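Supplementary Methods. Inverse-folding protocol.

Structures were first reduced to a discrete structure-token string of length 534. This string, shown here, constituted the complete conditioning input.
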């Protein structure tokens, strides 16, 4: 384990540990109000804890192996004792797993048990990414005084609702994640991971999609069925929505997010709620995908330990953003930062893109076929994604591109990005996907951010508002700005069958002829918050 400790230290660029000699109390039984017991492991330095604060991590992914080596051991070696608990229904914990639904009650009961332990130490810091961050928000407005800080990482307080939007249903998160948690405790699960990933990918093409769980898992999954039947507006998900608790958070919060993370918009919303409510909060956004934000452990060591000890953490601005394209960290006072004004870049004839008003021109056309859906290439995903070269995607006949001339000076985009596309389809039901790209001097196109909107009544020409992912990006002098327009990004988003059938039961796929208009009466544009630089 010492070798693994050294490897993790090097990979995460951590300071030297205070000790590598740890003791682990395994399978501690934590009682819940309904009689169920959840199992937890307590990691601590050998020879006594001397009042060390406790980092609490509540996880559905187990308590050992690589997970413990990357998230638990580094903290226990550097000033914490760590209690890692398996959430309900997994890895020995009692009850039945019902993802996300029981976390408020179980979280509060866990804290009630924890504050009574004689080894507790100076205080408690809530820490963890994704699901392990959502469980922090589930209890955020009812924390005992022993909790001194929260560090939610690549997560948000309403974890389901962004990817279950009716106008752009995400497949990857609920279905692939549902398949992963349903199979992670099966015999030889690690060895079978690649085969299961391929099986899950194939199952995403199942029609009707209600058969995904049987195709991917060999059995029914109630969670998969729930996310297919209930969209984000359904009151069914109210129990999982903790947005209303954010403003009532009583402890300092340090949120760590990624520009290519699927939960970024919700995480930025949560931070803005904290800031508007005058709560002590700070935000860090790096050039990361969902699985790349392990650098957040530095926040646990700097921000979390300081607050647990009643000290001030190292001073910095409330908002720290990695400005991609420039590759530099910059500090700001708020989100969205001030000084960046929205500017419309209009789609033009012959694939042009310019701040000038468009001239008269014919519409551009393409054919979208859900049987051969426009694929996702990098971008916003949970398991992969990020910044990739888009040449193969842009060569497809179902993808339109619009590009500026060569930039004569740097253009910096920081904030909320959106688009307005004048669109018409041969079918009443269609999607509009818009992606912002950076084209370098060699003509290589790299994705920056994107978004999708679903349209009912698409057979009538109308402006379609597309909310894209926020970003911080500097387009360098000599580069060009590009906008892609298409009708999908599969499997990031469910393919639109063109029939209007509910996603769970659709069995017919209809190809559509799409039109993008960009004349003076129909000024399609991407709206960028920009600051021009000399």
């Amino acid at each position: 384990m010492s070798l693994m400790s050294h490897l993790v230290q090097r990979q995460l660029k951590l300071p030297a540990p205070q000790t590598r000699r740890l003791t682990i109390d395994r399978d501690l039984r934590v009682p819940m109000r309904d009689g169920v017991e959840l199992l937890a492991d307590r990691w601590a330095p050998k020879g006594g804890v001397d009042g060390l604060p406790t980092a609490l991590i509540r996880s559905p992914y187990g308590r050992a192996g690589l997970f413990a080596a990357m998230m638990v051991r580094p903290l226990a070696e550097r000033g914490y004792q760590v209690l890692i608990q398996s959430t309900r229904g997994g890895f020995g914990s009692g009850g039945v797993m019902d993802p996300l639904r029981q976390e408020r009650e179980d979280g509060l009961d866990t804290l009630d048990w924890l504050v009574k332990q004689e080894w507790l130490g100076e205080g408690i810091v809530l820490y963890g990414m994704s699901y392990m961050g959502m469980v922090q928000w589930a209890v955020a407005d009812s924390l005992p005084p022993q909790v001194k800080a929260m560090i939610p990482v690549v997560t948000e307080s309403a974890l389901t609702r962004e990817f279950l939007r009716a106008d752009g249903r995400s497949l990857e998160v609920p279905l692939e994640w549902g398949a992963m948690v349903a199979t992670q405790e099966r015999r030889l699960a690690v060895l079978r991971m690649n085969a299961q990933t391929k099986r899950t990918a194939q199952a995403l093409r199942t029609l009707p999609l209600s058969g995904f769980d049987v195709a991917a898992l060999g059995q029914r999954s109630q969670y998969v069925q729930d996310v297919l039947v209930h969209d984000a507006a359904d009151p069914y998900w109210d129990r999982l929505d903790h947005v209303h608790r954010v403003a009532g958070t009583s402890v300092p919060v340090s949120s760590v997010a990624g520009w290519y993370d699927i939960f970024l918009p919700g995480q930025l919303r949560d931070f803005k709620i904290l800031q508007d409510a005058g709560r002590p909060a700070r935000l860090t956004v790096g050039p990361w995908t969902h699985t790349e934000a392990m650098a957040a452990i530095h926040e646990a060591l700097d921000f979390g330990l300081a607050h647990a000890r009643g000290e001030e953490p190292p001073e910095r601005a409330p908002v720290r953003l990695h400005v991609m394209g420039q590759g530099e960290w910059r500090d700001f006072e708020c989100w969205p930062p001030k000084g960046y004004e929205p500017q419309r870049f209009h789609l033009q004839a012959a694939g042009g893109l310019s701040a000038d008003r468009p001239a008269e021109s014919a519409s551009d056309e393409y054919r979208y076929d859900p049987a051969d859906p426009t694929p996702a290439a990098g971008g916003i995903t949970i398991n992969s994604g990020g910044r990739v070269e888009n040449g193969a995607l842009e060569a497809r006949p179902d993808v339109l591109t619009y590009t500026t001339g060569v930039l004569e000076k740097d253009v910096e985009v920081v904030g909320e990005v959106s688009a307005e596309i004048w669109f018409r389809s041969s079918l009443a039901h269609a999607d509009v996907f818009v992606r912002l790209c950076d084209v370098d001097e060699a003509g290589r196109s790299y994705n920056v951010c994107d978004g999708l909107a679903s349209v009912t009544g698409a057979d009538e020409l109308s402006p379609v508002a597309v909310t894209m992912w926020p970003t911080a990006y500097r387009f360098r002098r000599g580069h060009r700005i590009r906008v892609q327009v298409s009708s999908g990004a599969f499997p990031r988003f469910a393919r639109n069958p063109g029939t209007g059938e509910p996603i769970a039961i659709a069995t017919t796929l209809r190809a559509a002829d799409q039109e993008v208009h960009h004349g003076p009466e129909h000024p399609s544009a991407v709206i960028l918050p920009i600051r021009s630089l000399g």
